[in-house]
Amino acid sequence: MSQCLLSVVCFEYYNSLNYICVPPTSPVSSFYLWTKDAPVRDGFSNKFKVNYTLSRGAEIKCDYAVTNDVGNLWYHIHDWDKAGWIYGGHITKNKNLAKNGLFLAGCPVNVKVYDTSNTLAASIIDGELYTYDENKIIPYKVGSGNYFEVSDNTEYRIEIDSLSEGLMDYTIETDFDEVTGKPKNKKEYTCVPLEENEKFSSTVGGEINTNKVELNILDEKGNAAKPEYLTPVSEDPHTNDKNISPFSKIMGILMVVILVVVLCFIVIATILVKKSDTRTTTRKVSPQIEKPKAQAKEKPKAQSDVRFCPICGALLNPADSMCKVCGNKLRD
Q1: Which bin fits 158, alpha (ψ -120 to 50), beta or left (φ > 0)?
Q2: Complete DSSP assignment for 159-175
Q3: Residues 315 and 305: beta-carbon distance below 8 Å
């Protein structure tokens, strides 16, 4: 069974890094399980343990809801015997379990939905809910979100009137999976800036493909225009800064700061290593001074080598055989 969901959510400031708690306007709201089966978990994420499982058609009483860190809406079941959390895609407001789509718009806005005959089909004005046929379209509020659940394949024209300055999310979801409850087609405009008394228009359902749905702003004469900042996330999630959530901006800035710090550390470490290598290679070695070799001293002639002539006393050489002074012949 295909489904469609339109939602408009408006917020003045997104200040949660992990989740946003969005209590329904009434203390306890009734929903019905339209998927085949659905697990009820300990927390608002598929990471939590399954407590028990609900079957298709079960009526569920929910007291509040939470949007988790990946943007999925989870409802807390108000049942003292079997409390827990269920993913919003599994449940519907329609008792007949027919859900063709969902669209969502948010405060501070009033939302009116018209059919092809220009008849007011449903509205949420100053928190008051109206529908001309609950079997076709059901409005309800979850926190600041204005939800319209569509059960047929009728084409609808949505008019959104801003009540004050703020930011708005506008989302269209269609063709929900009967097992997981997740939409196969989705288009969303995030962080749309609002001025007081601004008017927006959009057409959904019928033969209009979800990807072709557009959100336009109306001038004083009712003419539709599409400013540059009205680019849907699904078409251009990076180039338009106004479509980036504050959480994404904070994380982006943080990643840039971390990257800069790491690069600075690498540069400083490289410079210090190069300086250390330079000091090592340029260190001067002291020259070794050779000591002059000591001149060998002449050994004094032994006393026994000195000879004198026994006649005249003249000094003789060792090889002399006669005295050169007196002519005395020497004995060996």
Answers
A1: beta
A2: EEEE-SSEEEEEEEEEE
A3: no
CA torsion angle 202 208 213 215 (round to 10): -10
State the pairing for strand pair 59-67/29-33: antiparallel
Tokens coding 229: 């900042």
* Whole-number Å distance between alpha carbons of 260 and 262: 5
- Separation between Cα atoms, residue 124 and residue 110, nearest integer Å: 6
| Identity at 299, one-letter amino acid code | K
What is the rounded distance in angstroms from the CA atom of residue 147 to the CA atom of residue 195? 21
The Cα–Cα gap between 76 and 250 comes to: 29
Residue 229: phi, psi to the nearest 5?
-75, -10
- pTM as predicted: 0.59
Each residue's pLDDT tens digit, 146-163: 888 888 788 889 999 998
What are 12's two structure tokens? 């003045």
- Contact predicate 228/243, CB 8 Å: no
SS3 state at 48: coil
SS3 content of the chain, % helix, strand, coil (to 5): 15, 40, 45
- Looking at residue 92, its amino acid is T
* pLDDT tens profile 89-107: 888 888 877 776 777 776 6
Q: What tokens does 299 get?
A: 């050994």
DSSP three-state, residue 228: coil
CA distance 43 to 182: 18
Q: Buried (b) or exposed (e) across 107-143, using 16+ Cβ within 10 A?
A: bbbbbbbbbeeeeebbbbeeeebebeeeebbbbbbbb
